[in-house]
Amino acid sequence: MIILQLALFCVLFSLMVKLGVGDNALNGLYFYPKPVQERAYEIGLTDLKTVSRKRKRFMILFFLAMLTALVMIIGLWNRIRTFREAYFQALVFLEVMNWFDGIVIDKLWVGKSRFWILPGCEDIPYIQTWEQVLKKRGILTIIWVFGANVVAGLVMLIFGR
Predict the structure, then answer these.
(1) Engineered SS bond to 137: which of 30, 33, 102, 161, CB 3.0-4.6 Å?
(2) 140 near 98, Cβ under 8 Å?
(3) Quick one: which of 135, 100, 111, 106 has its CA closest to 13?
(4) Residues 112-158: pLDDT tens digits?
(5) Crossing angle for the helix pair 48-72 and 83-100, nearest 10 degrees?
């Protein structure tokens, strides 16, 4: 059952990204490295204010949706009622999401799809190297060890006895 839940959680992650960018990768410019963002501003594809507004709106909705889904999976679907069990399930989901983002989203989807190439920015690297992915995901692996406490706490607050 947990494999199905992890897969559904990753599908939700992917759908949220797709909904966030829609049919134009420029809607997700905040995901790109700074040099790409700066070039996009220079050539007039968009402006910092617009990108900041889109980033804020997306991130709030994204985090709320992913957090709600995770709390519901652990507390409602799996009926976990102890902090320890909730913590370990949260940790597994957060770590899988972390590495899914780095490998499937960043390296495969972004790295292999022409959708993410912005006009006028083709000469600037926008795909993370494996070294960058491993470093970022390694740091996030440590962060999620602590972040899983928040999720477990919410599960206990909402579903605990």
Answers:
(1) 102
(2) yes
(3) 100
(4) 999 999 999 999 999 999 999 999 999 999 999 999 999 999 999 99
(5) 140
For the chain, counts of helices (H) and of strands (E): 6, 0
Structure tokens given for 74: 């652990």
Tokens matching residue 156? 């206990």
- Alpha-carbon distance of 90 to 67, in angstroms, equals 10
State if pTM tops 0.90: yes
Q: Which two tokens stand for residue 4?
A: 């199905």
DSSP label at residue 102: I
* pLDDT digits 0-9 by tens, 24-58: 999 999 999 999 999 999 999 999 999 999 999 99
Tokens of 158: 């909402």
Among 42, 33, 11, 51, which residue's Cα sits nearest to residue 116?
33
Q: How far apart are CA 117 and CA 155, in angstroms?
A: 40
CA distance 36 to 53: 18
d(CA 143, CA 12) in angstroms, rounded, equals 21
3-state SS class at 128: coil
